């Protein structure tokens, strides 16, 4: 092993991550990406009406979820949180059931649009479409945990465009006043559909706003998975110690169109798209793992095969699931009893 | 006359009003570079520049409120909401402020603004993108509520809306943007509060607005094949409501069906039906029927969604019920 390999290898070890950990993290990044690609294929084939994806955001999501207690803690996602939800416990099948709007879709039984992930067993609270609304919910969840002394930490996510909503600002204020145990994540891909960062806010980074609410704010490069892990774990430990919320901004590339209703070529140049692809966390993380000798051509192939098998099986399984019965259309508006 | 889509009719009204009046400005999410989610503002950023075509942050409350401020100072903002569903985030500014500023200033302050965008169900957009908010807004004094069905109405009513000195809730419909129709060339405007008879008939009056006008016309076509002649009234506006046109029709047909996409309780159809009872009770040979959406947030799955929106067959059945033929 070269000297360089030893120093870089030290990076994940220094953070307390085993070789097994980082390989497993990479697996989730790859799984989320493959699932994402499959969803677009299915949409183009007419099997799904709508896709919204997390391509480019997977690295920071997997890293941020890694320090969380998968059983104890809460997650309030947004529509790009595919990778984070997979790490938290949802399966590719769960997500495809939502894409196909099947009766057994664990998020909503086919009621809500795809991409609005929720799962009772994994303590993932379903998101709502109007951007920003999940932030006050997460803060309320964290407040309830504190009141009940359960030790739970809540993580919530949003895009930088969503931070222009009053909900977002009001949530930060409330969280800081009450020292709520909540990790306030912003995945900044510098675009809200077509609207660039400079039209969204006059500050250069979302994280600087934390000062205005009386909490720490940090920014990490979303293509540097280990750095994302480091800053999130620090914030997680703060929350656990009762020191309150942290605003965490991940700078991420948006690799695809906003959604299947959008064509990003209308407002992004070819050069911009080329630049953005260089920041793909799948590639940057893979390069790290290759450099430290954890991924070789052989192990990478094994991993790719494992991911492919899982996606194929999940697609079949979700596709076989029944659609919601038409006569259930008016159910679940009010409590129906046990 | 020119043949235009509903989308281009709206766009041509914006262009003509912006050319004619420098006070008209456009505000909304993705309306400039992106040219609008439904392309109503195509090319307008290039034509008028970023000072008059303002791409906003995602802050409905903030930019609707700012538009109110601009309007009070004499600009004529036309705000685009991506869907009317997102206007709910700006509800306080619309209802507590835009609708009340004239009144609270004792008539001194004008709020000449238009808020426009798609209202109602699309296909598989689920509950937070599919709501029909016309009755919600028509409930509040101080707001005009307009719901054009055809390209000509889209243009004529948008012009009137932009020239109005009071706030206008301008409800478009995603399914209609691509629809083509004849639109007069000249500086033509349609007055608020004037319904149109979309089809004449002697047996029953079917009252509808926006997309449901076309469902009513299709139903009327089917009924005609069975020898039932339905008169279809296109309301165009909900506030002010043209009760006179409905009453005149009902006094000839003696039966009425009111169609809306909204939920049944407290909807526009309830108000319209009551106006018929108040002004034409003696003329009725049968109770007024309502055709509405199912009383449930709009589900995403297609198998459920088809159960939640009103169909032509429901209109046909309601008409037959008023005729004692069910
Ligand atoms: C209140 C509200 N307004 C508008 C929209 C339409 N919309 C959906 S996603 C989106 C862009 C969000 O951008 P950002 O928060 O930066 O997240 P990204 O999609 O880039 O990850 C917009 C405008 C919405 N969902 N909710």
UniProtKB/TrEMBL annotation, chain B:
Instruction: Cite the entry's keywords alphabetically.
Output: Oxidoreductase, Thiamine pyrophosphate
SMART domains, alphabetized:
Transket_pyr (SM00861)
UniProt keyword annotation of Lyase present: no
Signal peptide stretch: none
InterPro entries found in the cross-reference section: THDP-binding (IPR029061), Transketo_C/PFOR_II (IPR009014), Transketolase-like_Pyr-bd (IPR005475), Transketolase_C (IPR033248)
Any one Pfam family match given in the protein's UniProt record, by short name: Transketolase_C
| Required cofactor(s) | thiamine diphosphate
**Molecular function, one GO term:** oxidoreductase activity
SUPFAM superfamilies assigned? Thiamin diphosphate-binding fold (THDP-binding), TK C-terminal domain-like
Q: Which residue intervals define the domain Transketolase-like pyrimidine-binding in the entry?
A: 4-179
Q: Which PANTHER family does this entry report, sorted A to Z?
A: PYRUVATE DEHYDROGENASE E1 COMPONENT BETA SUBUNIT (PTHR43257), PYRUVATE DEHYDROGENASE E1 COMPONENT SUBUNIT BETA (PTHR43257:SF2)
The record's listing under NCBIfam families reads:
PRK09212.1 (NF006667)
| Protein name (database record) | Alpha-ketoacid dehydrogenase subunit beta
Organism the protein comes from: Candidatus Segetimicrobium genomatis
